[in-house]
Amino acid sequence: MRLTDYLDKGASLGTAAPCLTMGDRSYTYGAIVSQSHRIALALNRSGVQPGDKVAILSANDPTAFTCVFGISRAGAVWCPVNPRNEAAENRDLLDLFDCRCLIYQSSFQALVDRIKPELPTLTTLVCLDGPADGASSFEEWIGESSTADAEFGPIDDVAMLVGTGGTTGKPKGVMLTGRNIETMSALTLMGYPFDGRPVYLALAPLTHAAGVLCFPILALGGQVVIMPKPDLPQFLSLVEQKRVTHTFLPPTLIYMLLEHPALATTNLESLQCFWYGAAPMSPTRLEEALGRFGPVMAQLFGQSEAPMMISMLPPKDHFNTDGTVARARLASAGRPAPLVTVAIMDANGTLLPSGERGEVVVRSSLVMAGYYKNPEATAEAAKFGWHHTGDIGYLDDDNFLFIVDRAKDMIITGGFNVYSVEVEQALLEHPDIQDCGVIGLPDDKWGERVVAVVQPHAGRTVDEGEVIAFVKARIGSVKAPKAVLIWPDLPRSKVGKVLKNEIKGQLTG
């Protein structure tokens, strides 16, 4: 399937049904389908051919997301651009992707002005929300309504190019095909609860997980309610007002929701599935979320190279057969998805038995076609015939996957491997700590020392020595932090994920 096929499938269930909503603006399936045809025709008039790359630089917005379907209908490749990236990083990505067209919001005009002179292949600029120097306004660009249909290009080509940072600092482009997204969507629909037409609330950026989760929602004729920016009181209000059935947030934003006073008075009975992912969630806080949100929490684990559904922990798997919370299971990432084979591999390519730690490797039609114009990195990621995730983990005897850490976040101190996630999970059991990040810093004696940066709950104080003792009692002195720094807030990505690289940068100068 092409990306636009999910929209067309939803439209076949009723063109008058609401499709995309933001604030007081709501657009039906019929309107979005018509607009996507006009966008595809405009791309064609601009010289964009099937297989060409078209980037979107925008905050969450219905018109920007409609452009995704116009790009697909034109046979072109959608390149989502993270608005929080530095100008140089976005320039490098657009250059790597050979982008022909950039569709952007006027709030990013200064960024566009900085990078455009260095991008000679970028021949078409379109501003979504007004006139801009050197760019066409969106309304002028798409022109008058047309009855002509626009369908260009093959179905099975690359559908998305997703930028990802590498350990060398050089950007890479993950090539995701229509088959990859179709596999992800099929797994979503078969693995999680859907009763009736879903209403999906998108607070997290549509350039990330929140965007690709829209495709299975649209295939069911569901409504996507878009939030232009994170606003937790508004999020809770919309869940109640719009009778939201499905949503996604990273753990750090869920922690903030659990602290919000409005949660206690919000009607959450419409929720069927509250996805969490993008980072490990504290089992202690997850159990709290099950009590506050109800039996709707649902984990997903994936990465750009194998989107969203490597493993799945649907709501029912959070509980034992007698209805009690399955506490030991809450630390897992669920079981491998039905269309995905997961194994644990050592550095020599040997598959390890259950219980042993190694790199998580994957085989599935979920896995990317490769890295764009980077055969060396593609081959490295596919060593020994498996896709290498870069995550360290193990499978237990019941085939539940436990992610121990990212390989690059592992700390080697005094010859011992310390997994930062394990230390973070212990810290998050402390009643006064809301969030944290654990890193390794150079140490003359130990090679690296474990350092924790913690954010206390509002109105609470944290004592460094008491926290170190608290962690020692749970996971031992080797893994306990040698220092605990107390910050009022932690650096986070746009989706709320704690940025350990920024913490390390601030501490090392």
From TrEMBL:
One of its GO terms (molecular function) is ligase activity, forming carbon-sulfur bonds. Residues 422-497 form the AMP-binding enzyme C-terminal domain. Residues 17-372 form the AMP-dependent synthetase/ligase domain. SUPFAM superfamilies: Acetyl-CoA synthetase-like. The keyword Ligase applies. Keywords: Ligase. The keyword Ligase applies. CDD domains: FACL_FadD13-like. InterPro entries: AMP-bd_C, AMP-bd_C_sf, AMP-binding_CS, AMP-dep_synth/lig_dom, ANL_N_sf, ATP-dep_AMP-bd_enzyme. It comes from the Bacteria. PANTHER family: LONG-CHAIN-FATTY-ACID--COA LIGASE, MEDIUM_LONG-CHAIN-FATTY-ACID--COA LIGASE FADD8. Belongs to the ATP-dependent AMP-binding enzyme family. This is Long-chain fatty acid--CoA ligase. It comes from Antrihabitans stalagmiti.
